[in-house]
Specification:
Length: about 100
């Protein structure tokens, strides 16, 4: 098409967040997701106890996340979106072939 010029669309200005968006951001910023082992292990109970501590005001909220066990929990920490911390048995650090097992699945 001769003589036709592309029209430039104006970039919409960034609007202020809605109250719901502001609340979502505030809650996510003050929440700590802690990955642990299987539900039958004591680690999940420990994080559950930490989460049950009475909080006041804008303190950090702790949310336990049950995993599939030691090495899987470490992989969750490394690769899952949102996992901030993990509690695992110390023998997971001595697992032979650890880096391969974290990435392989």
């Amino acid at each position: 098409m001769e003589g036709t010029q592309a029209q430039v669309q104006p970039v919409p200005e960034r609007s202020t967040p809605t109250p719901q968006q502001a609340l979502r951001t505030k809650l996510n910023d003050s929440t700590l997701l802690v990955a642990t082992g299987r539900p039958s292990t004591s680690y999940l109970g420990m994080v559950g106890d930490m989460a049950a501590l009475p909080a006041s005001g804008d303190e950090v909220r702790i949310v336990p996340v049950a995993g599939a066990g030691g090495v899987q929990t470490l992989r969750d920490l490394l690769f899952l979106r949102g996992i901030d911390m993990a509690i695992v048995p110390s023998n997971c650090w001595r697992t032979p072939g650890r880096p391969r097992r974290w990435a392989a699945g």
